[in-house]
Amino acid sequence: MRSADIAKIVMLSLAVGTAAIGTATSLDAMQNIRTETVTLLTAQFDPREVVKIEGGDFHFAPGQVAPVHRHHAPAVGYVAKGHILYQVEGGQPVILSEGEAFYEPTDHRILRFDNASATHEAIFVDFNFQQAGEPFIDFEQSPAEHIDRRAFETAAGFVKTVSSVHVAEITIAADDLVIPDAGALLVAYVAEGVVEVRTDGAMPAAYSAGDSIALGDVTKEVVLANPSATTRSKLIIFSAR
């Protein structure tokens, strides 16, 4: 099996608009002088009719090993803490480090998805872009130890054909904001600070570090804002088209 058949990962830009940055209110805020976007990966797959995006926040104890499993839907995620030992059948094992994104392709056996450290916890988030009736995960055998999965809000209420998921890390400066490109399926994870979601006619909703944001099918302008005047926010955004 060629590695190209396992995961097609390319680096592309994520179209994100930014507004002008407000004046820093203190010397401590100078580190937040710019809002920046860094593309982490793009996962490409056969077109599929997605009806929901189900996510999870996984906390692995030191040395914890995941059972061999498959995903029926493209699973795209981000390592929030620590290191993960990852191996797809037919590929070489790799170490995923904090701040990196990953892609688990459909219908391939995932041989390893383990905490690479024997002494420190690992945390990762995982979003599945599911068709109707698809499960979140399919274990070959029941897990031998408890898996600490903390469920995120599911994005649903849409039917949209997509063939790729772009993952970007957006550092939002103090008092700044970003406007995601409309027309995509969007979910996000707050990695640092606080992010407010602002839409016309609705009260702003605030999300703190560790929260997910289930935006779903973005058909009108949505503003993602950093409400702090002094500290930055960091957002990991998953955009499917």
UniProtKB/TrEMBL annotation:
InterPro entries: Cupin_2. Residues 58-124 form the Cupin type-2 domain. It holds the Pfam family Cupin_2. PANTHER family: CUPIN DOMAIN PROTEIN (AFU_ORTHOLOGUE AFUA_3G13620). This is Cupin domain-containing protein.
